[in-house]
Amino acid sequence: MMSDTGPDQKPHYLGHRQRLRRRFLDGGPDALPDYELVELLLTLAVPRGDVKPLAKRLLERFKSLPGLLNASPQALTEVDGVGEAAATALKVVQAAAQRLARQEVLHRPILSSWDKLLDYCHISMAHRGVEQFHLLFLDRKNVLIADEAQQTGTVDQTPVYPREVVKRALELNATALILVHNHPSGDPKPSRADIEMTCQVRDAAKAVGIVLHDHLVIGRAGHASFKALGLL
């Protein structure tokens, strides 16, 4: 059987990779559908071969581009064709997106940057497979001075201890708080346990002069605000 490539011929995928890069550079990210964006990313980590089928398999396995980027390295490498280099490339993109969104809100007045805060929370938490609870600490001008992950729990529960929340706020000289956690189910509707815990944190914080501005529950389909729902 004759080879598709002679001594003066290049593998077909090389020309495709070059065209893909040129389309991206000329037209920007919106010029490429999700699978081609993933494909282009994989070409940086996989030096040889056609990675288009792999890009499509990854998006099918993880349902969406955000779902893919938020997958754990272990889950990524379980997909046939994904090695350490490809998994690292995907996780670097996720880390860069999170840091960019974080810089848009850190050390800025949160109440006047609410949409950017929601974007940051969604990028960071909406597609996590387990619950994670974040504490956003604000100073007297409502500037975000720290964002800390207090607890990581199971697929449907995260233990939160009001005394520890208040203790950390006092250590940081914070005068206000915003609570944020995700619902891996995708539905951001607060549970009864969420409501009870929020009331406990609010009362503990109020006792030492710290204001609880809101509690945000992040889901893949959107978010719920305790304040907007009249729960605070």
Structure description:
The chain is 46% helix and 16% strand. It contains 9 helices and 5 strands, in the order H-H-H-H-H-H-H-E-E-H-E-H-E-E.
What is this entry, summarized?
It is built from nine helices and five strands, in the order αααααααββαβαββ.
Q: What are the main properties of this structure?
A:
single chain; 232 residues; alpha+beta; Cytidine Deaminase, domain 2; 2 domains; 5-stranded mixed sheet; 9 helices; 5 strands; 46% helix; 16% strand; elongated; disordered N terminus
CATH superfamily of the largest domain: Cytidine Deaminase, domain 2
Strand content: 15-25%
Strand order of the largest sheet: 2-1-3-4-5
- What count of helical segments does DSSP give? 9
Identify the quaternary structure here. Answer: single chain
Alpha-beta content class: alpha+beta
The CATH architecture of the largest domain is 3-Layer(aba) Sandwich
Overall number of structural domains: 2
Q: Radius of gyration, rounded?
A: 22 Å
Shape: elongated
Order of helices and strands: HHHHHHHEEHEHEE
Average pLDDT number: 88
Low-confidence stretches: 1-7
CATH classification, class level of the largest domain: Alpha Beta
**Could you describe the largest sheet, including whether it forms a barrel?**
5 strands, mixed
- At the fold tier of CATH, the topology name of the largest domain is Cytidine Deaminase, domain 2
